[in-house]
From TrEMBL:
Residue ranges of every copy of the Glycosyltransferase subfamily 4-like N-terminal domain listed in the record: 14-115
Pfam families cross-referenced by the UniProt entry: Glyco_transf_4 (PF13439), Glycos_transf_1 (PF00534)
Keywords: Glycosyltransferase, Transferase
GO MF term set: glycosyltransferase activity
Gene3D superfamilies assigned to the protein according to its UniProt record, in alphabetical order: Glycogen Phosphorylase B
InterPro entries assigned to the protein according to its UniProt record, in alphabetical order: Glyco_trans_1, Glyco_trans_4-like_N
Enzyme class: transferase
Enzyme Commission (EC) number: 2.4.-.-
Domain Glycosyl transferase family: 175-337
Superkingdom: Bacteria
Name of the protein in its database record: Glycosyltransferase
Amino acid sequence: MIRVLQIIDTLQAGGAERLAVNYANELRNHNVVSSLCATRLEGPLLSSLDNEVGYIFLNRKSTLDIGAVLKLRTYVLKNEIDIIHAHATSFFIATILKIVTPSLKIVWHDHYGNSEFLDKRRVLILKFCSLFFSQIFSVNSILEHWAKKNLWCKNVSYVKNFPVLNKSEHDLTTLKGESGKRILCLANLREQKNHIQLLEAFKVVIKDYPNWTLHCVGKDFKDQYSTLFFKKIEELNLGRKVFFYDTKSDILNILKQSTIGILVSKSEGLPLALLEYGFAELPVICTNVGNCKELISDKSYGILLNNGKSYDVAEAIIRLVEDESYRLESAKKFSKKVSKEYSKHTILKDVVAAYSSIK
């Protein structure tokens, strides 16, 4: 059996973090001895990790935290780990570990969310580290092509994200507002996610549809963008129409209470939230970024916007609000597509095959 350790910097509720936990949990069903390492920070996703999955927390304090590297090396040797599957920015500590433990193999999973702005990506350190990678998995075709062009790893492939949503037995969230009239935006409070345009669009929507509400679920980083978001709610007088819930672990429960799923990001890889909307059979609105067009390939699957400008977003929401028949039909078709083309079993079978091919 292959022994694989997933590495992620935190267990906060972001897309890359959720995917790392999903891999750690689900690979056990594919003849893999599975473990997970959080390098810098734990978080709510820790409760989602199966008891049978090995776990180590490094509490890494700096980029070159030698104590954290030695702690990780001890764990790897003790548990006879064959492959390190490093997600996002955790590639650096994985590379250091490879240098001091040459027999290890590194798979790097590129979740880079700003795939529309790759010209601004810092590449020098990543390019050096890519010399030590046996395989690169990219979450969309744009990142796949970029890695082939800019990095020094010979094996690069696009691997689809997949949704895994389990029932939560505690800390269940109750969404405010009227049932059947809730719009959900599942996205951390980052500028890339374009919440400000969404708020401006929603202000237009409630002029004619005042009973509808907007529900934002995601991490609040308490930064400048967060301040701007809450000021915008106040400025637009949306305090009784827009609700923010911060990080939540009962995502399936939240999806079941929602009516429409929306993402108006300026850039994405392949957003896990969009797959989760499909998993829960929600009608969707999404901007045409990353590989989102692969999911919403025509209007029968949902509404794909060429930009996230307020007026266009408002028009899209109003269409779904007014046309219940289209809402239901597109949601059902989108859900079937996600189930068929983004099946965890098919994707993980290919991932394990890639693991096995590493020499």
